[in-house]
Design brief:
The protein has 14 helices and 23 strands. By secondary structure, the chain is α+β, with helices and mostly antiparallel strands. Among the domains are: about 190 residues, FAD/NAD(P)-binding domain (3-Layer(bba) Sandwich), CATH 3.50.50; about 70 residues, no CATH class. The strands form six sheets. A seven-stranded mixed beta sheet has the order 6-5-15-16-17-14-18. Strand 20 and strand 21 form a beta hairpin. The longest helix is centred in the last third of the chain and has 27 residues. It is globular and about 75 Å long.
């Protein structure tokens, strides 16, 4: 049982990049007047820096920091994101959209899909459930706008390096001190096991009361010093390599990420205003690094702006995300591959969760346990959602896809699949990230079919049902038809000077 009564007056953030500077900006802005905050990073140590796609929850973080969207987007070369296009996932040459919008209209007893499912049986529904969602249709038609009277659920594609730079300015404006240099040693108290200080390569010592590990995959504090342990999820998420490269744009930016399944993984295309981020995530058991690199280079558009680089990773999570007086934020806390752009979200949630449970009067075991329990719940829910994409597939064209299709999956995911197949029901646990519409779009997109719909739908006769469905569809079409093209709106709203 840990009850360290020392007041927290000094926070040390080990590592920069997106995780470090998001943490520093939030803590500087929200509690910086009462706490001394130091961020340590080395210009000699690179960051992963490929996390260019986000999800709508990032708006919460930006509102806390008072960030103006147009200013942020211009500074980070950003475009809008309405969802992700999944290509070749169900089967080769098939594609579907996972949009950020809500599908149709629910009723108290059953979600919209039940009305749509009956409509399909009767021949009065559109075959594309996304026709009942404005964000879905807008993405497909390459349209977007920020409107005062009707909000579209959206996120951003942005340059991760420029985003860290943008946040660094906010952090330093609120008193965060940056120390350049490499950490040589982590000093741990032999009795309490708490971290006391960090020895730097320049012979200085940085002391602190609370340490935030943003050191990336290696987990310099949380793992190398505190030996927290790691739960490996690679039997469910077998990809362990990524190759990343940037290219010049050859066409106007689209308002969605492209995720293109390949023979042993998948490829991303993320459009920024002046360039495109590209990557290939794959499993080294089925493809060599050179093969993975060549496959990416064979499937990019535009002139290369960077040399391709291979990033090695292992999917899984720390057994504790808060251990003693160290909290892991970002890649040091674990890694779920970027298929649904959740990395920056998990950074944000870790920061907000720590601030909500901030140990100002000393580190107490109940705070640690609560933080870890909530983090575990959230990461496992995201894990299941990612596994769904791989496991529910009709592909039989490679050893990789045969493994994914036949592998055992967590009981929690199996329950969701069985529930939908037998009843048409989907659900969101309290505070879970992905909602009903997300689960539904991916389940349908990957080829799951339901045996029945909720009987409350039968309270409508066929004519009423047709009128209900067509009314929603017309409303969606009217909203989207009034929108400008995505690139035209960017040029008006947040044009970047970055080339």
């Amino acid at each position: 049982m840990i009850n360290q009564a020392t007041d927290i007056k000094r926070i040390v953030i080990a590592g920069g990049g997106t995780a470090g500077w998001m943490t520093a900006a939030a803590m500087g802005k929200l509690i910086g007047k009462t706490i001394d905050i130091t961020l340590i990073e080395s210009d000699e140590i690179g960051t992963v820096g490929v996390g260019e796609a986000t999800i709508p929850t990032l708006h919460i973080f930006h509102r806390l920091l008072g960030i103006k969207p147009a200013e942020l987007m211009a500074a980070t070369n950003a475009t809008f994101k309405l969802g992700i296009s999944f290509e070749n996932w169900r089967q080769v040459d098939h594609k579907y959209m996972h949009s950020f919008g809500y599908l149709g209209k629910d009723c108290w007893a059953g979600g919209f899909q039940h009305f749509w499912l009956k409509g399909l049986q009767k021949g009065i529904s559109s075959d594309e459930i996304g026709d009942y969602c404005a964000e879905h249709l807008a993405a497909r038609e390459n349209k977007f706008a920020v409107l005062a009277n009707q909000e579209f659920n959206h996120a951003y594609h942005l340059d991760a390096g420029l985003y860290a730079k943008f946040l660094r300015k906010i952090a330093e404006e609120h008193g965060v001190k940056r120390k350049e240099g490499k950490i040589e040693k982590v000093n741990v108290d032999p009795e309490s096991g708490f971290i006391t200080s960090l020895n730097m390569a320049d012979q200085t010592v940085v002391e602190g009361d609370l340490f935030i590990d943003c050191s990336g995959f290696k987990g310099l504090l949380i793992e190398e010093a505190l030996h927290t342990g790691f739960d490996d999820w690679s039997h469910w998420l077998p990809c362990d390599r990524a190759v990343a490269v940037q290219t010049k744009n050859v066409q106007p930016a689209i308002p969605y990420t492209r995720s293109i399944a390949r023979s042993a993984g998948w490829q991303w295309r993320i459009p920024l205003q002046s360039r495109t981020g590209n990557g290939h995530v794959f499993c080294s058991r089925y493809m060599s690094d050179e093969e993975g690199k060549q496959l990416l280079l064979d499937n990019v558009e535009g002139e290369l702006l960077t040399d391709p680089r291979v990033i090695k990773f292992r999917t899984g999570t720390r057994r504790k995300h808060w251990n003693k007086n160290c909290v892991a934020i970002g890649l040091s806390s674990g890694f779920i591959e970027p298929l649904e752009s959740t990395s920056i979200h998990l950074i944000q949630r870790g920061i907000i969760r720590l601030l909500q449970n901030f140990p100002s009067k000393g580190i107490r075991q109940p705070d640690i346990d609560h933080f870890n329990k909530l983090t575990e719940f959230e990461t496992e829910g995201i894990r299941d959602f990612i596994i769904l994409h791989y496991h529910v597939t009709e592909r039989r064209d490679s050893a990789f896809w045969n493994y994914c299709r036949t592998m055992p999956i967590p009981d929690s995911l199996q329950h969701r699949i069985d529930l939908f197949k037998q009843t048409g029901k989907v659900f969101k646990e309290l505070d879970e990230l992905f909602g009903d519409s997300s689960w539904l779009q991916v389940m349908l997109g990957q080829g799951l079919e339901s045996e029945q719909y909720h009987p409350i739908v039968d309270m409508m006769d066929d004519k009423e049902l047709e009128s209900f469905l067509e009314g929603i569809r017309k409303s969606v079409r009217a909203r989207v038809s009034a929108l400008p093209k995505h690139n035209d709106f960017i040029n008006h709203y947040c044009k970047s000077n970055i080339v």
